[in-house]
Write a structure and sequence with these properties.
Elements: E1 6-19, E2 22-35, E3 39-43, H1 50-57, E4 65-76, E5 85-88, H2 97-102, E6 107-110, H3 127-134, H4 143-154, H5 159-172, H6 178-181, H7 191-203, E7 209-213, H8 221-238, E8 241-245, H9 249-255, E9 258-263, E10 266-272, H10 273-278, H11 283-288, E11 342-343, E12 349-350
Parallel strand pairs: 3-8, 3-9, 6-7, 7-8
Antiparallel strand pairs: 1-2, 1-4, 4-5, 9-10, 10-12, 11-12
Helix pairs in contact: 4-5, 4-7, 5-7, 7-8
Bound molecules: iron/sulfur cluster (SF4).
């Protein structure tokens, strides 16, 4: 893939939360690219920084978190154009015009369960940032109105045209009787249907990239399979990139071409999916993959639980942060020296002293 296929470049990104008990490095020096049309998987235990990295891409780090270093470069391209402008998202005003155009319109984001991330108050002043950019569903308004408003916020269409596009999108994501469902309230839909509506909202503006944070975790297997098919189909039709965050190893094996593994805010390994599943290098990745199914086989396999406790984020261990839990721990080395991010072969990168001269 050529360089000009790069859509988002994350360079040495750091996000910190300065709270009373100290400073938490939620994202600590993460760098990777996402290319047009590519699905990049991001895996790791809860609290490893996956979701905060995703939110940093949209300048949506929750307070008191803030980006303290690094940058997120977005190669912005008008629809149908070949020229790109590079926008440094990390330098944009989080409430400014440019990021509001990008959020929802050019980079969409969906969450695990739309009703669990409700926007309780949906006023004219707040709805665009909340419902449009986060693709949240509010309980008090018809799903068709929420979908149509997203479309109108990012595309020059009339109200009637937006409603027609909304019905077409509902049909495309497999909602039965879309011309009637368009006037339903979220509570009148099943969990699977709400998630499809949210995906319809996220995809209605044909974004260059979709950030999907555990998008199918709450759904049963058959609905999950349908939603993944819809995402793939739409990805092919508009060459959309997907950043796919999940605990489900079977899903990531099926969806992603490349995977980043994160631990305690750091990336510890990155490789093409097949290489990562068949030749994991980092002891943390190996531990995660212990329950791994064969690549390509549908599975609900989750991340294996790993021995030992996740360290206290206010009191990280010296040297390699994984050392208290690592089966390959080397006394005198791993507890003293922090490994660096090194390219091993091809696109395989790892941060572990097993592969470094010290
Ligand atoms: Fe394990 Fe040492 Fe590698 Fe860290 S640096 S993952 S402790 S072998």
């Amino acid at each position: 893939m050529s360089e000009n296929n790069v859509l988002v470049e994350i360079q040495d990104l750091r996000v910190e939360f300065d709270v009373r008990a100290g400073v938490v490095k939620a994202v600590d020096g993460v760098s990777f690219d996402i290319k047009r049309g590519q699905t990049l998987g991001v895996i790791g235990e809860s609290g490893c920084g996956k979701s905060i990295t995703a939110r940093a891409i949209l300048q949506m780090v929750p307070k008191p978190g803030k980006i303290t270093n690094g940058q997120v470069l977005y190669h912005r391209r008008a629809r149908g154009a070949t020229q790109t402008d590079i926008v440094n998202i990390s330098k944009l005003d989080p409430d400014g015009q440019i990021i509001r155009e990008i959020r929802g319109g050019e980079i969409g984001m969906i969450f695990q369960e739309p009703m669990s991330s409700l926007t309780p108050v949906y006023t004219a002043g707040t709805h665009i940032d909340e419902a449009v950019s986060l693709h949240r569903l509010t309980p008090l308004r018809k799903v068709g109105d929420q979908l149509a408003e997203t479309i109108q916020a990012h595309r020059k269409v009339t109200k009637q045209e937006a409603r027609e596009i909304a019905i077409a999108m509902l049909r495309r994501v497999g909602i039965p009787k879309p011309d009637q469902r368009v006037d339903s309230y979220p509570h009148q839909l099943s969990g699977g249907q709400r998630q499809r509506v949210m995906i319809a909202i996220a995809l209605s503006c044909q974004p260059a990239m979709l950030i999907a944070d555990e998008p199918t975790t709450a759904l049963d297997v058959s609905i999950e399979a349908q939603i993944l098919d819809i995402m793939r189909e739409l990805q092919e039709s508009v060459n959309m990139a997907i950043m796919f965050i999940t605990h489900n190893l079977g899903v990531i094996a099926e969806m992603a071409e490349e995977i980043v593994v994160m631990y305690m805010g750091k990336q510890v390994e990155r490789a093409k999916t097949v290489a990562l599943f068949y030749e994991p290098m980092h002891p943390y990745t190996r531990a995660l993959l212990q329950s791994i199914p064969v690549v390509g086989r549908k599975s609900r396999a989750r991340l294996a639980s790993i021995e030992g406790m996740v360290p206290d984020p206010f009191n990280l261990p010296p040297g390699c942060v994984f050392h208290p839990r690592c089966p390959a721990f080397m006394p005198g080395k791993c507890d003293k020296i922090a490994p660096t991010w090194k390219q091993l072969v091809g696109d395989h990168w790892v941060s572990c002293l097993l592969y470094q001269e010290v």
